[in-house]
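RETRY 2/3 - previous attempt timed out on the joint model. Re-submitting the same 766-residue input unchanged.
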Amino acid sequence: MKTRVLTATVAVTALLLGVTAACSSGSSSSSSSSAKPAGDVTLNYWASNQGTSLDNDKQVLTPVLDAFTKETGTKVKMEVIGWSDLQTRIQTAVTSGQGPDVVNIGNTWAVSLQATGAFMPFGTAEMKTIGGADKFVKTALETGGKKGSDLTSVPVYGLAYGMYYNKAMFAAAGLQPPTTWEEMVTDAKALTDPAKKQYGFALAAGSYTENNHFAFITSAQNGADVFDAKGNPTFTQDGVVDGIMRYLDLMQTDKVVNPANAQYDNGSFAVTDFATGKVAMILNQNNADATIASNGMTSDKYGVVAFPAPKGAKTDVASHVAGINLSIFKNTKYKDQSLAFVKYMTSPAVQEQLGKPFASLPVLKAGKAVFTDNAAEAKTFTDIYNNRAKPLPLVPAEDQYETTVGKAMNGLFATIATGGTVTRDNVKAAMKTAQEQVAASVG
Amino acid sequence: MAATTAGPASAATPTRPVNRARRRQQGWWLPYALLAPAVVLELIIHVVPMLTGIYMSFLKLTKFFISNWSAAPFAGLHNYQLAFDFNAAIGHALLQSFLITCAYSAIVVGVAWVLGMAAAVVLQRSFRGRAAFRTLFLVPYALPVYAGVITWNFMLQRDTGVVNHVLVDNLGLLNNKPFWLIGSNAFVSLLVVAIWRMWPFAFLMLMAGLQSVPNDVYEASAVDGARAFRQWRSITVPMVRPVNVVLVLVMFLWVFNDFNTPYVLFGTAQPPAGDLISFHIYNASFLTWNFGLGSAMSVLLLLFLLLVTGIYLAVVNRRSQRA
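RETRY 2/3 succeeded.
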């Protein structure tokens, strides 16, 4: 018996060694062949969903990428990834080391992703190659990484939150667009009529990405930060809890939001409600324009004002510095081509070409807002982006703030929608849980 | 290769006195050779990742080290301490998720077994259209998980779903449209979907088991005056016991580890009531990039399932030896 076991072990070990040897020889031969590309370079590029659908993104980007191939001879293989998957896909790529060459990231993740060390820092030389740091709008570029370090991402599309309102509905009720939170709630109440299935507001109350942004903005209006100077979470402080409570109360006490919105796990549901006249107002980034237009509402039918702060608020922050950045994976075999691609995507011509279909704000100093033909809207968003936007905390744990606080708010909205009551203490308890989760993974 | 050449070489020297024991060993390597591919794949696919996971659970593997695991500092038992600290947020949430999963497993396995058994018994006697029913009942099991569960997701939507349409608009059983995918109802939805997916498997296994029960046993008991329920209790259940033992264990392991159903049904907006343990561990690892903690939770899950399986098999085997 013993000898049998022994021989079996030996046989298995021998086989295993054989297999691993085969694996390693296989991979080494393949890497040696690809180390010397025969003229043909193909970059892998992960694009985020900026247009009305993944297909729409593909249609918009394909001619742009073809032009790049024509110009440089470098081919680009693109994959458009939805927002619900992008973060996980990037994580998996970071963990396995098997990623694309160039990737779009939500700019708020920049510092978190920088901390993984998987992305190429844009040092002085690299920055010069892509056209110099000076070409970018300063606030947009600052989102690219930790302050004082070599950034690991550069901005490509700029976005900001605005409050969209339906002009006809406001006129019919004899209302003016609000300038304070209180006015906004009063207007929303006047425009809410559950019997007619009409509500003042639609919120993406089941989307953790949207919810955490509003936790941040309302906290900022209260003068509170979600992280202290050392990068430790401060979710339980009064300003944050009150800010979240104020936002939740739009559904709970003010009743200007359809409880069904607790299931809106994606911003586009709210935008569709707005474009089809079911609600009078939405809070959305300016890329809502593309979806609104695709639902048949033209840009003269709606107006945009800054998301209002309460009367006497500490700040009038109306948005975070939202947008999309471009990063290059450190282990790319084609660094030069990747840099050339980043330079191309952030060139004035391409920026102008993509500004309209993706409804994005220019990230270049010399850029013009081309995303809308509505001059007033362009002016409002440019003003919000340049003067009333605050960057989300540039700390490594930022992405965990987004998931933990955002998901906690999903749960609170669900409680309200299903007939429960959320008190200030409930919010504080939820924030304490979120804070402990973040602390455990950073500390 | 050495082993195969050694065999014929010894056979080709007949002048040597033949050792009986040795001759019996001719071809001894064949079973190992046949088993080897399975063993190697088992090692590569299961054992090595499992050992890696156990190793990871002792590391402080956060995002700062994720692109270079070897640099992650040793955390000792810290990850386990976090998981077991039920007063703090992480341990408390894990315990809650564990309890939900226990309730979920017990109910799903129980109901699926009852439904499967009932259908198998009913379809044991041949009648017209039996094959059609058998096929029909297997549909939920044959459907791809994603296709089946995403359809439930559509059906359970509050405003546009067919479930509320039937309950509220058509039958008027409820006044307000309830939410099925958020809040506490989410648990009920999860149960319904999981049972729908699981019971055909119980049906299939039990139906196969029933084929081996000879008909004359039933006839003999009928002569003795046994009615249907008595027949089922005294003949059917004991006769399909070997199938049942495996079936219940396999179903329990599958259901307890279920990831697909909550993941597809709830998407990124999973409600606390539907927070099953596999999904919870996935979130603990991927949402916070804390793979060390996630691995520690996985190891605890593994230990728990090993313990349950061990006790179950010990109890079941002892009983079968006694009988």
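Residues 42-159+321-390 of chain A form a domain with the D-Maltodextrin-Binding Protein; domain 2 fold (CATH 3.40.190.10). Closing ticket.
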